């Protein structure tokens, strides 16, 4: 919980009375991500005060089962559930909507989300024994790769909550429990993924894939996920999870093929390009 990011036109990551909170205008929400103290009443008070002050539409956070009831009685709802998200404890993504329009999800959208999940879960592991072609160099990325990573992010993302196109920001991430994995072809970084490591709670989150436009649709994310999964197992962490755009067939299928289980859907949660997207939560329990 050391990072404090506050740049103009981006969201903010800061600690408020022991709670790590991501908030700002990009996603127009408060997201409490980690906390030092299990004073859930204080967390509820602080996030509501912040959301009302900044006029945010949504509050979302991760809480262990021991604190769930305190949030439910205050009007929060469960949107996703991950066994062993916390060390030896089930975790819940809980939310409160300060603007009811943001909570709305049409019946047609719900049907599409369920269709994507159904198709993803039906996908077979027909390529599980295939290796990444020799032309690609797949590995954990280091400081020397950050310039190319910055360039790839510029190609991949029109909007983002944090300055991931800035090399200095990427350096800060490497110094604060984030890891990057990627594949090169002909000395060009063509795909990468960002992973946040939480040793205290024994979990890791795959945050985003950046894919060069010329290399989309080639199943490269499957191989990168293989590499990430191997690394997380080697670290001895219990749980690997991700939030995936609910209408993205490709990435939902990638996680399903890797053995991940759907944990729920976060409604109108994340700005992707120019619109708020519903995000499917996928998880994989390891070393259990």
UniProtKB/TrEMBL annotation:
GO terms for molecular function: N-acetyltransferase activity. This is Putative beta-lysine N-acetyltransferase. It comes from Aureibaculum algae. Keywords: Transferase. The lineage of its organism: Bacteria, Pseudomonadati, Bacteroidota, Flavobacteriia, Flavobacteriales. Pfam families: Acetyltransf_1. InterPro entries: Acyl_CoA_acyltransferase, GNAT_AblB, GNAT_dom. Gene3D superfamilies: 3.40.630.30. Residues 136-287 form the N-acetyltransferase domain. CDD domains: NAT_SF.
């Amino acid at each position: 919980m050391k990072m404090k990011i506050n740049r103009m036109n981006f969201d903010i990551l800061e600690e408020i009375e022991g709670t790590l909170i991501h908030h700002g205008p990009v996603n127009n929400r408060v997201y409490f991500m980690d906390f030092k103290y299990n004073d859930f009443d204080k967390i509820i008070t602080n996030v509501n005060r912040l959301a009302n002050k900044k006029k945010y539409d949504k509050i979302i956070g991760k809480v262990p089962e021991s604190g769930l009831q305190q949030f439910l009685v205050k009007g929060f709802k469960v949107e996703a559930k991950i066994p062993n998200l916390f060390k030896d404890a089930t975790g819940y993504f809980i939310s409160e909507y300060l603007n009811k329009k943001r909570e709305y999800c049409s019946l047609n959208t719900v049907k599409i989300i369920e269709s994507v999940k159904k198709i993803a879960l039906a996908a077979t592991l027909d390529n599980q024994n295939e290796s990444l072609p020799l032309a690609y160099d797949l590995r954990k990325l280091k400081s020397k790769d950050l310039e190319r990573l910055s360039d790839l992010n510029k190609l991949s993302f029109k909007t983002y909550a944090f300055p991931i196109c800035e090399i200095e920001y990427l350096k800060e991430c490497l110094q604060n429990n984030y890891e990057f994995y990627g594949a090169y072809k002909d000395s060009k970084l063509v795909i990468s993924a960002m992973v946040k490591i939480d040793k205290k709670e024994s979990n890791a989150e795959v945050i985003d894939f950046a894919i060069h436009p010329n290399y989309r649709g080639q199943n490269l994310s499957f191989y990168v996920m293989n590499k990430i999964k191997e690394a997380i197992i080697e670290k001895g962490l219990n749980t690997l999870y991700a939030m995936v755009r609910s209408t993205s067939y490709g990435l939902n299928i990638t996680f399903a093929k890797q053995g991940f289980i759907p944990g729920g859907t976060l409604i109108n949660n994340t700005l992707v390009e120019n619109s708020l997207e519903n995000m499917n939560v996928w998880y994989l329990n390891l070393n259990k």
